[in-house]
# Entry
Amino acid sequence: MRSMLFVPGDRPERFAKAVASGADAVIFDLEDAVVTDRRPAARQEIARYLVSAERHVPLWVRVNPVESGDVLADLAAVIDGRPDGIMLPKARNGADVERASHWLESLEARAGLEPGSIGLIPLITESAGAVLNAASFTKLPARVRGLTWGAEDLAADVGALANRKADGEFEFTYAYARSMCLLAAAAAGVVAIDTVDTEFRDAAAIERRARESRRQGFAGKMAIHPAQIAPIHAAFSPSADEIEWAGRVLAAFGAAPDSGALSLDGRMLDKPHIRQAERILAAAARR
# Structure
C-alpha cells in the first residue's frame, strides 16, 4: 500500500469520496478525528458502511488505544463488517500488540472469520516510552502487516512546541523515532509505513518528502487529504530508469548463477543489490 488515507469516522458523507480518491487503502478513524461523545454514532456509521460497501480498496479502522475505555467497543462494533485491518494507535510496547491481536482472535471466532484474517498495523512511537521500547515491536503476531509511527502525539508527550524545522524536515527527536520504526519493521520482517504529512496544498513538497521516505526504506505513507494521494503515488512508484536497472541486474545475475558478485555499469554488485532490484520490480508490478 503506497498510500493509506484517513477519513473521520463521524463523517459518513466523506466515506465514498475517500474510497474513490485513488488511495491504496482507506482508514476510518475512531480515535483522534472523533470526539468522545460522537464515537458511538461513528462506530455505527463505519459498521454500516463496511457491511454494505463494495471493496474496491482495503478498508481499515483506527480504533482507540489498548489502555482506553473505548477500544473494545470499537472492535466489537466493526468486526461484523469484516474490516481488512485495524490500526492500533499509541501502542506502548509489543505486549499491547499481542493483547489487541488476542482480542481480534476472539472476535473473529465469534463472527465466524478465519483466525488472523483481519490485519493489524500498530503506531509505535506516539509516546517517549514507546520509542524507548521499539525493540519490543520486533516479535509480532502473524496478523501484523506493517508498522507505522506518529510525530504529533510524540511532540505533545515530550512537551515540544513543534516537531519540524523551518524547512519542513523533522527535528532530531522525530527523525530518530522515524528511524526506530523503520528498523523495528525490518527486524520484524514487515513493511514500514511513514507518518502523515500535514501539508496538503503544496504537491511538490509532498512528493519530495515522500520520495525521501521511499529512499530511506518506507514502503508507503499515510495521508490526511485526497490531494496528497497523487504526489505520494508518484513518489512511491519506481521510475522507468529504476525498472530498467532492476531488470538488468537480475538478468546479469541470471546469466552468471555461480557468481556472488559481478560488475555492471562500473559498479560492483552482490546479494543486497539483487534484493533491491527484486523490491523495485515488485513495486512496479503493484502499480
